[in-house]
Design brief:
CATH architecture of the largest domain: 3-Layer(aba) Sandwich
Radius of gyration: 21 Å
Number of helices: 12
Structural class: alpha/beta
Shape: globular
Largest sheet: 7 strands, mixed
Low-confidence stretches: none
CATH superfamily of the largest domain: Type I PLP-dependent aspartate aminotransferase-like (Major domain)
Length: 357
């Protein structure tokens, strides 16, 4: 099996799995209890918190543990948008968890503005001043676009927002960026950041929300899944793809001649390609039959009609059906890429010869 859909989720790393098993077997106590075992569990949580804060280069602040990145994104919306006159700004390429929550708030009377994308997938910085005013409370953007992989210029985005209204809370969903890119949440001037485990070979069902000093949100109630929390921190410590640039370069340099890359190609982990007048789902299914797994875009939006990111980039409805997303992880090899490219070429030729869309 060749797995090239790591932006959807990743296979858990053996070291992570071992660390979680150790917790579940030996330090399984409720971290809220006050006897020795519970104190040890609480210490494991705090150690994980320290590791994650260091990975984010966070100077001070608070790190809340959540069940998912979606929950973290929703927490910051709930915290920031409490009055009807408060306005929210999102971007056209944001994850479905942000888009749907923003839509729900719009239905309740909140004014929501959407920053458009340029044709290459970058956020249109020039549009930001027209969308922010004195009522703007929260600005959310995805640091890495989950559909096409664009790594946004966070410093430029923060600067553009602050020039318009320095009081706006700026939240970055870094689910696809955490550990894959080294970014400093303090230096960049973020107010809050979302991360999660299952994009970096950690466990599903755990995420975190970092808040800068001075912003306080209560930890969601319930017993902490400290095995998963330790798993998230262990994944962050062990995530490494030293050959990802090599794999990415080989991929794009050896694509079939009639395939092209969508958007600016500044992220080696995610590559979105436009197929030559052939439906991506058809190709995906043909590759799946050979145990080669690729995606069509964000897994959380896989059943939606159309693609909001590609639509914002001005791809036609027909073109939006002609894409594949190839996303790399720690387990991928050059041989995987070569096998995929050979299979892709064969599938495209077979489909063309039978005029199958």
């Amino acid at each position: 099996m060749i797995y090239l859909d790591n932006a959807a989720t990743t296979k858990i790393h053996p070291t992570v799995w071992q660390a979680m098993q150790n917790i579940e077997q030996n330090t399984f106590y409720n971290a809220n209890t006050l006897y020795k075992g519970g104190i040890q569990s609480a210490q494991a949580v705090e150690q994980a918190r320290t590791i994650l804060m260091q990975k984010l280069h966070a100077v001070g602040g608070q790190l809340l543990f959540t069940n998912t990145a979606t929950q973290a994104n929703h927490l910051i919306m709930d915290h920031s948008l409490r009055r009807p006159q408060q306005e929210l700004v999102i971007t056209a390429g944001d994850h479905t968890s942000i888009y749907l929550a923003a839509k729900e708030r719009s239905n309740r009377g909140c004014t929501v503005h959407t920053v458009p994308l340029l044709r290459d997938g970058r956020i249109d910085l020039a549009a930001i001043p027209n969308l922010i005013n004195n009522n703007t409370t929260l600005f959310i953007f995805s640091l890495v676009n989950s559909d096409i992989g664009t790594y946004q210029d966070a410093a430029a985005i923060v600067e553009a927002v602050r020039k318009c209204n320095p009081k706006v809370h700026i939240h970055a969903d870094a689910s696809q960026a955490f550990c894959k890119f080294d970014f400093d949440v303090t230096q960049l001037g973020f107010d809050s950041v979302t991360i999660c485990g299952h994009k970096i070979h950690g466990p599903k069902g755990v995420g975190a929300l970092w808040l800068r000093q001075g912003i306080n949100i209560e930890q969601p109630h319930g017993t902490l899944n400290h095995a998963a929390i330790v798993g998230l921190a262990t994944a962050a410590q062990n995530f490494a793809c030293p050959n990802v640039n090599e794999l990415h370069d080989y991929l794009i340099q050896n694509l079939p001649n009639d395939c092209q890359v969508n958007g600016i190609n500044n992220n080696p982990y995610i590559t979105n390609i436009l197929l030559p007048n052939i439906f991506g789902e058809t190709v995906m299914n043909a590759l799946s039959a050979q145990d080669i797994y690729v995606g069509l875009g964000s897994a959380c939006a896989s059943h939606a009609k159309g693609n909001r990111t590609l639509d914002a980039m001005k791809l036609t409805p027909q073109q939006q059906k002609q894409v594949l997303r190839i996303s790399l992880g720690m387990n991928n090899t050059l041989e995987d890429i070569k096998t995929f490219l050979t299979a892709l070429q064969t599938v495209l030729q077979a489909i063309r010869s039978h005029n199958i869309l």
